[in-house]
């Protein structure tokens, strides 16, 4: 009897242990599975987005292959730095260094524009003289035979035979015979010779010689260099005919071309520093004394004149000159200026990227600006920026590319949204087999109902 009782107890204990073991295996495993399912649910609730590195417009909530190129999808990084501003694109310090992004704080300065000018040396028009013949006749001798020869005032430059002069001398000799009784005839004969620019000394020499001179010398009226020879030996000339053009080169003009776009900056009195290629290593300075009031209709430029002394005649007409003028803004007030590298153009819009630093990191926001005159290496900003704003001045295209990949407002897509690339071969609807090779360009669903049926490619070509 006792042995049977012990046997029953052993069976009961074995059954209990086996039941506990089975219960642990069943309920313990279910608990682990529940935990795993809970963790998976948490991961899904975190909204992990999967995208294609070649086609960033692909956005899926689960991993897989790209429906366009077949590459494995990769998780899209969270944009933690722009949680406060959904329009901003965040960049880590490492990304900024790799993209060579640098920033600058905007400030107000007195704008100064460096304008490069090209021109050449010209003779002073006020010192150019036309040496003419005072009597009609034939050129018998030329004492100045080539352009560039220097002549002095009073120097004989030519001899002219004039029948009228021969007749006038004969009248003078006849009038001298009755000078005592009719002095008015004698004086009239001398005045006739004076009208042909003969001096009293020349008339006295004619009277003293008592013979008619067939050749009359022409004396230079001014000193200078012959810039043009307009007569040859044997030519017949009339009274007042120009024989030579003479220029005094002790002072010269330097005429610079001012383009129509630069005219608002250049004013009378501005100092110009210029060089002459044929005189290397030397700098010359002068102030603008005159600006043409009319633009040349062919070249679209106006001439700016600089008057400069020409000691030693080193500056010769037709020499080329290159100058620079530091032009100030016509309005004396200060203005906001930014470097050219900070601005991106789309044809109609000019944009910059504003840097913001938050507790979550650094992000950049696109902003439209209205530009004023160009400063050569920068621009004046009329609207869009305030003093103290920090903008990207280098690496702006890298920031814009990151904004396009993140679907944020960018230079070519000011409204933001999924990036559009040239690899989109056709219509695509997420979760539909048509996306793998369909040719229906009218269907496109990027996970945003507002983008369906939108295929306006004009935004990409702005």
For the record, the CATH architecture of the largest domain stands as: Beta Barrel
Structural class, judged by helices and strands? alpha+beta
CATH topology of the largest domain: conserved putative lor/sdh protein from methanococcus maripaludis s2 fold
Percent range for β-strand residues: 25-35%
Helix content: 10-25%
**Average of per-residue pLDDT values:** 78
End-to-end Cα distance, whole Å, is 103 Å
Morphology: rod-shaped
Tell me the radius of gyration: 48 Å
- Weakly predicted, low-confidence segments: 29-45, 421-462
Number of helices: 6
> Would you report the number of β strands?
27
Number of domains: 4
Could you describe the largest sheet, including whether it forms a barrel?
7 strands, antiparallel
What is the CATH domain class of the largest domain? Mainly Beta
